[in-house]
Amino acid sequence: MENKSKIDIMFDRMREKKKEVKVVRRIVFVISLILLITAAIAGYQGYNYVTSALAPVDPDSEEVVEVEVPIGSNLDSIAALLEENGIIEDARIYKYYVKFNNEAEFQAGTYGLLPSMTLDEITQSLKTGKVYREPLFTINFPEGLTLDQIAENVIAEKTDYTAEEFMEKVTDEAYIDNLMSNYPGLLTEEIKGEDIRYALEGYLFPATYPFYEEDPSLELIIEQMLDATQANIAPYSVVLEDLGETPHWLLTFASLLEEEATAKSDREIIASVFYNRLEQDMPLQTDPTVIYAMGEHRDRLFNEDYQFDHPYSTYINKGLPPGPIASAGASSIQAVLDPATTDFVYFLADSEGTNHFAVTYEEHLENRDKYIGN
């Protein structure tokens, strides 16, 4: 009787364990089924989302949306602009689409785009530069101009504004403060340094700009140029951060190359010369800084000019000047961050504007005698 009870107890426990195993199996099965269904739903939703993002936002729409792509815009900013204006569903998906299809070289301009356009149609439109409306006129701002030269040679000649009106606007403190709040990553407190001549010197990007109204305001002209500067510097933000430098440093350095270089390759070599001089704690001794410091155009400098004491003179002061001395183009900006590798420390330009480089002072003197004379 006692043994039988033990056997019964044993079988009861076995039956309980079997029940527990069955319950556990059911729970595992249910959880697995739930996870499988969840993954399937997520995959299905993801597939639907991507498919939807690759399709026109509204296939039946006939609404023309005017989208302005600023000069120098990169893929990130263009994709964000298209999403913001309802032309595409998702900026990230569009970027993947463009990269997968190896598309590039989009054109700046004002486009008339429809939410019913396919991604391929949008891409081809941006590549070919087909714009919704033709500009009424364009204004070309050449590289290497100072604000004074922009005022006199471009604004006064190409618009109804006087040089004085332009200079009054670009030196207006309240307007500059407003611009600083609108362009916080570009216009920092550095532009208000004690020795800075003009806060916006070097910040108006040289390019040809389209205008779609007969009398664009000075604000529109200035801010379109600032947009272009910001777009051209944005791709280098990570590099600048790694170097511990700022856009102000970059534009200042680039302005020296713009004033000294006579060819694209020269910019990279001259950049290396300046880096070598900075590394050796030598003054940069670049003539355009003296001319800028003196505030008047000079075809040639004399010995006494190099003694002109001014914060912008790189003969009197070591390092870069307080700020840009002109508006630098894309080639000069790029050369600052991707200079040639040389041992050159000296260079001079001959009467035809060709630069000649030297490693030693003795070689430099030989170049002077050979290409310039006494």
From TrEMBL:
<keyword id="KW-1133">Transmembrane helix</keyword>
<keyword id="KW-0812">Transmembrane</keyword>
<dbReference type="Pfam" id="PF02618">
    <property type="entry name" value="YceG"/>
</dbReference>
<keyword id="KW-0961">Cell wall biogenesis/degradation</keyword>
<comment type="function">
    <text>Functions as a peptidoglycan terminase that cleaves nascent peptidoglycan strands endolytically to terminate their elongation.</text>
</comment>
<feature type="site" description="Important for catalytic activity">
    <location>
        <position position="260"/>
    </location>
</feature>
<keyword id="KW-1003">Cell membrane</keyword>
<comment type="similarity">
    <text>Belongs to the transglycosylase MltG family.</text>
</comment>
<protein>
    <recommendedName>
        <fullName>Endolytic murein transglycosylase</fullName>
        <ecNumber>4.2.2.29</ecNumber>
    </recommendedName>
</protein>
<keyword id="KW-0456">Lyase</keyword>
<keyword id="KW-0472">Membrane</keyword>
<dbReference type="InterPro" id="IPR003770">
    <property type="entry name" value="MLTG-like"/>
</dbReference>
